[in-house]
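Box S1 | Example of a co-folding query
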Amino acid sequence: MDLEEILIRAKNLNFLGKPPVQEHILHAEGFLQTIMDNTDRRQPGKVVDLGSGGGVPALILADSLKNWSFVLIERKKKRANFLLWAIKTLSVEERVEIICDEVENVARNKKYEESADFVTARSFGPPPTTAECACRLLKLRGFLVVSEPPTTTKRWENPALEETGLISTKTYKQENGTFQVLQLQKNPGNRLPRRPGVPKKRPLW
Ligand SMILES: C[S@@+](CC[C@H](N)C(=O)[O-])C[C@H]1O[C@@H](n2cnc3c(N)ncnc32)[C@H](O)[C@@H]1O
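Box S1 (continued) | Returned holo structure for S-adenosylmethionine
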Protein backbone atom coordinates (compact mmCIF):
# COMPACT_ATOMS: atom_id res chain seq x y z
CA MET A 1 0.00 0.00 0.00
CA ASP A 2 1.47 3.40 -0.95
CA LEU A 3 1.26 6.80 0.72
CA GLU A 4 -1.74 7.95 -1.29
CA GLU A 5 -3.69 4.80 -0.41
CA ILE A 6 -2.80 5.29 3.26
CA LEU A 7 -4.11 8.86 3.15
CA ILE A 8 -7.30 7.69 1.41
CA ARG A 9 -7.80 5.38 4.36
CA ALA A 10 -7.25 8.32 6.73
CA LYS A 11 -9.87 10.27 4.82
CA ASN A 12 -12.34 7.38 4.95
CA LEU A 13 -11.83 7.27 8.71
CA ASN A 14 -12.63 11.02 8.87
CA PHE A 15 -9.12 11.86 10.09
CA LEU A 16 -8.53 14.24 7.15
CA GLY A 17 -10.41 17.37 6.11
CA LYS A 18 -12.71 17.73 3.12
CA PRO A 19 -10.32 18.39 0.18
CA PRO A 20 -9.22 15.44 -1.99
CA VAL A 21 -6.14 13.56 -0.83
CA GLN A 22 -4.06 15.02 -3.69
CA GLU A 23 -4.67 18.52 -2.29
CA HIS A 24 -3.49 17.41 1.15
CA ILE A 25 -0.33 16.01 -0.46
CA LEU A 26 0.31 19.27 -2.32
CA HIS A 27 -0.18 21.25 0.87
CA ALA A 28 2.31 19.00 2.68
CA GLU A 29 4.76 19.65 -0.15
CA GLY A 30 4.49 23.33 0.76
CA PHE A 31 5.75 22.38 4.25
CA LEU A 32 8.56 20.43 2.60
CA GLN A 33 9.66 23.38 0.46
CA THR A 34 9.56 25.67 3.49
CA ILE A 35 11.69 23.26 5.54
CA MET A 36 14.18 22.88 2.68
CA ASP A 37 14.51 26.63 2.42
CA ASN A 38 15.50 26.81 6.10
CA THR A 39 17.97 23.99 6.35
CA ASP A 40 21.45 22.95 5.37
CA ARG A 41 20.48 20.14 3.00
CA ARG A 42 23.60 18.09 3.73
CA GLN A 43 22.42 17.17 7.21
CA PRO A 44 19.34 15.15 8.11
CA GLY A 45 17.28 16.74 10.85
CA LYS A 46 14.54 15.94 13.31
CA VAL A 47 10.93 17.04 12.94
CA VAL A 48 8.26 17.03 15.64
CA ASP A 49 4.70 17.34 14.34
CA LEU A 50 1.97 18.71 16.60
CA GLY A 51 -1.50 17.10 16.42
CA SER A 52 -0.73 14.71 13.58
CA GLY A 53 -4.31 13.46 13.06
CA GLY A 54 -4.52 11.55 9.76
CA GLY A 55 -0.85 12.18 9.00
CA VAL A 56 -0.75 15.49 7.10
CA PRO A 57 1.87 16.81 6.74
CA ALA A 58 3.95 14.37 8.81
CA LEU A 59 3.58 11.14 6.81
CA ILE A 60 4.31 12.94 3.54
CA LEU A 61 7.38 14.61 5.05
CA ALA A 62 8.62 11.31 6.51
CA ASP A 63 8.19 9.66 3.12
CA SER A 64 10.16 12.44 1.37
CA LEU A 65 12.93 13.21 3.87
CA LYS A 66 14.38 9.71 3.86
CA ASN A 67 17.14 10.08 6.45
CA TRP A 68 15.31 12.39 8.83
CA SER A 69 13.74 11.35 12.11
CA PHE A 70 10.22 12.26 13.16
CA VAL A 71 8.05 12.39 16.25
CA LEU A 72 4.31 12.56 15.59
CA ILE A 73 2.22 13.62 18.59
CA GLU A 74 -1.50 12.90 18.66
CA ARG A 75 -3.68 12.71 21.76
CA LYS A 76 -6.55 10.70 20.25
CA LYS A 77 -5.95 6.97 20.51
CA LYS A 78 -7.71 5.92 17.30
CA ARG A 79 -5.70 8.44 15.27
CA ALA A 80 -2.44 7.46 16.97
CA ASN A 81 -3.19 3.78 16.24
CA PHE A 82 -3.84 4.66 12.62
CA LEU A 83 -0.49 6.49 12.48
CA LEU A 84 1.27 3.47 13.98
CA TRP A 85 -0.22 1.28 11.29
CA ALA A 86 0.74 3.86 8.62
CA ILE A 87 4.42 4.04 9.59
CA LYS A 88 4.67 0.24 9.63
CA THR A 89 3.02 0.08 6.22
CA LEU A 90 5.46 2.67 4.88
CA SER A 91 8.37 0.80 6.58
CA VAL A 92 9.60 3.96 8.29
CA GLU A 93 9.04 2.92 11.93
CA GLU A 94 12.79 2.87 12.67
CA ARG A 95 13.01 6.64 12.29
CA VAL A 96 9.41 7.71 12.97
CA GLU A 97 7.91 7.63 16.44
CA ILE A 98 4.22 8.02 17.30
CA ILE A 99 3.31 9.38 20.73
CA CYS A 100 -0.27 9.24 21.96
CA ASP A 101 -0.32 12.07 24.50
CA GLU A 102 -0.91 15.78 24.94
CA VAL A 103 1.79 17.88 23.27
CA GLU A 104 2.12 19.87 26.50
CA ASN A 105 3.22 16.68 28.33
CA VAL A 106 5.66 15.61 25.62
CA ALA A 107 7.27 19.07 25.62
CA ARG A 108 8.02 18.61 29.35
CA ASN A 109 9.65 15.20 28.83
CA LYS A 110 13.46 15.51 28.91
CA LYS A 111 13.72 13.06 26.00
CA TYR A 112 11.91 15.46 23.66
CA GLU A 113 12.67 18.87 25.16
CA GLU A 114 15.00 20.93 22.90
CA SER A 115 15.19 18.02 20.44
CA ALA A 116 13.65 19.32 17.21
CA ASP A 117 15.25 21.13 14.29
CA PHE A 118 11.73 21.76 13.04
CA VAL A 119 8.30 21.67 14.63
CA THR A 120 5.43 21.49 12.14
CA ALA A 121 1.80 22.36 12.81
CA ARG A 122 -1.20 22.20 10.51
CA SER A 123 -4.61 23.07 11.95
CA PHE A 124 -3.27 22.48 15.46
CA GLY A 125 -4.54 25.65 17.08
CA PRO A 126 -4.36 29.42 17.04
CA PRO A 127 -0.91 31.07 17.06
CA PRO A 128 -0.51 31.50 20.85
CA THR A 129 -1.44 27.85 21.51
CA THR A 130 0.85 26.57 18.76
CA ALA A 131 3.78 28.78 19.80
CA GLU A 132 3.44 27.78 23.47
CA CYS A 133 3.25 24.06 22.68
CA ALA A 134 6.12 24.16 20.17
CA CYS A 135 8.71 26.32 21.90
CA ARG A 136 10.16 23.85 24.41
CA LEU A 137 10.43 21.09 21.79
CA LEU A 138 12.76 23.14 19.60
CA LYS A 139 16.53 23.29 19.71
CA LEU A 140 17.90 26.79 20.00
CA ARG A 141 17.72 28.34 16.49
CA GLY A 142 15.26 25.62 15.40
CA PHE A 143 12.19 26.52 13.36
CA LEU A 144 8.46 26.32 13.82
CA VAL A 145 6.61 25.98 10.49
CA VAL A 146 2.87 26.62 10.60
CA SER A 147 0.34 26.56 7.77
CA GLU A 148 -1.63 29.75 7.66
CA PRO A 149 -5.25 30.44 6.67
CA PRO A 150 -5.68 31.75 3.10
CA THR A 151 -6.37 35.29 4.26
CA THR A 152 -3.74 35.93 6.85
CA THR A 153 -3.77 38.87 9.10
CA LYS A 154 -0.81 39.63 11.29
CA ARG A 155 -1.59 36.65 13.53
CA TRP A 156 1.87 36.34 15.07
CA GLU A 157 2.52 39.96 15.88
CA ASN A 158 2.07 40.27 19.61
CA PRO A 159 4.46 41.24 22.44
CA ALA A 160 3.42 38.06 24.32
CA LEU A 161 5.25 35.94 21.70
CA GLU A 162 8.49 37.08 23.36
CA GLU A 163 8.01 34.69 26.33
CA THR A 164 8.11 31.68 23.99
CA GLY A 165 11.56 32.69 22.69
CA LEU A 166 10.20 32.57 19.12
CA ILE A 167 10.38 35.33 16.58
CA SER A 168 8.63 35.45 13.19
CA THR A 169 11.22 35.21 10.45
CA LYS A 170 9.36 34.83 7.17
CA THR A 171 5.96 34.23 5.60
CA TYR A 172 6.07 31.95 2.54
CA LYS A 173 3.22 32.48 0.12
CA GLN A 174 3.43 29.50 -2.19
CA GLU A 175 1.28 27.84 -4.80
CA ASN A 176 0.53 25.14 -2.23
CA GLY A 177 -0.39 27.43 0.64
CA THR A 178 0.92 30.03 3.02
CA PHE A 179 3.41 29.07 5.72
CA GLN A 180 4.69 31.09 8.64
CA VAL A 181 8.21 30.40 9.89
CA LEU A 182 9.35 31.32 13.39
CA GLN A 183 12.76 30.73 14.91
CA LEU A 184 13.64 29.97 18.53
CA GLN A 185 16.12 32.68 19.43
CA LYS A 186 16.29 32.16 23.20
CA ASN A 187 15.06 29.65 25.77
CA PRO A 188 11.33 29.80 26.47
CA GLY A 189 10.09 31.09 29.82
CA ASN A 190 10.16 28.39 32.52
CA ARG A 191 6.39 28.19 32.87
CA LEU A 192 5.86 27.26 29.19
CA PRO A 193 4.13 25.20 28.11
CA ARG A 194 1.56 25.28 30.87
CA ARG A 195 -0.38 22.11 31.74
CA PRO A 196 -2.50 20.38 29.07
CA GLY A 197 -5.44 22.45 27.92
CA VAL A 198 -4.27 25.74 29.45
CA PRO A 199 -2.51 27.08 26.30
CA LYS A 200 -5.85 26.82 24.52
CA LYS A 201 -8.12 27.95 27.39
CA ARG A 202 -5.95 30.86 28.47
CA PRO A 203 -3.89 31.81 25.40
CA LEU A 204 -0.82 34.00 25.81
CA TRP A 205 -2.50 36.58 23.57
C1 LIG B 1 -7.68 19.60 13.12
S1 LIG B 1 -6.70 18.19 13.41
C2 LIG B 1 -5.39 18.40 12.23
C3 LIG B 1 -4.69 17.10 11.96
C4 LIG B 1 -3.61 17.18 10.89
N1 LIG B 1 -2.46 17.96 11.31
C5 LIG B 1 -4.16 17.75 9.59
O1 LIG B 1 -3.88 18.91 9.29
O2 LIG B 1 -4.88 17.01 8.90
C6 LIG B 1 -5.88 18.57 14.95
C7 LIG B 1 -5.34 17.31 15.63
O3 LIG B 1 -4.56 17.72 16.73
C8 LIG B 1 -4.85 16.90 17.85
N2 LIG B 1 -4.55 17.71 19.03
C9 LIG B 1 -5.11 18.91 19.35
N3 LIG B 1 -4.56 19.40 20.48
C10 LIG B 1 -3.64 18.49 20.89
C11 LIG B 1 -2.73 18.42 21.98
N4 LIG B 1 -2.67 19.40 22.89
N5 LIG B 1 -1.91 17.35 22.09
C12 LIG B 1 -1.96 16.35 21.16
N6 LIG B 1 -2.80 16.36 20.11
C13 LIG B 1 -3.63 17.41 19.96
C14 LIG B 1 -6.32 16.53 17.67
O4 LIG B 1 -6.66 15.34 18.34
C15 LIG B 1 -6.44 16.42 16.16
O5 LIG B 1 -6.21 15.12 15.71
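DSSP finds seven helices and seven strands in the chain. Residues 16-17, 51-54, 56, 73-76, 79, 102-104, 122-124 surround S-adenosylmethionine (CB under 6 Å).
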